[in-house]
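FORM 7B: Structural annotation worksheet

SECTION A. Query
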Amino acid sequence: MSDDAIPVTVRILDKEYRVACQPQEREELIESARMLDQRMRDVRQTGRVIGSDRIAVMAALNIAHELIQLRLAHEKMNADLGRRMSALQVRVADALSSNQQLDAHRESV
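SECTION B. Predicted structure
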């Protein structure tokens, strides 16, 4: 922990936790705690999971699953973008080559 870390109190499922973080990360920490609190409340509302430890694990699993889905979607988008960029580069190179051939033909006429 760095010397300039600040303590932040967050409330998750009716319990307060003090967490040290960098000043520039404070808002993200608070938002993360809000999200976790809401997810844990959602899990608790189903009535199928009892106990705060189990509720926390289920909420964490749900968040981890969403993170994995987002990573996979991001990787797919990057791959698609790479293919599209390659295709575009080929089209630009072909267009430039055709243009140079036209210019060379005009000069010889």
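SECTION C. Observations
The beta strands are 6-12, 15-21. The mean pLDDT is 91.

SECTION D. Sign-off
Analyst initials: ____
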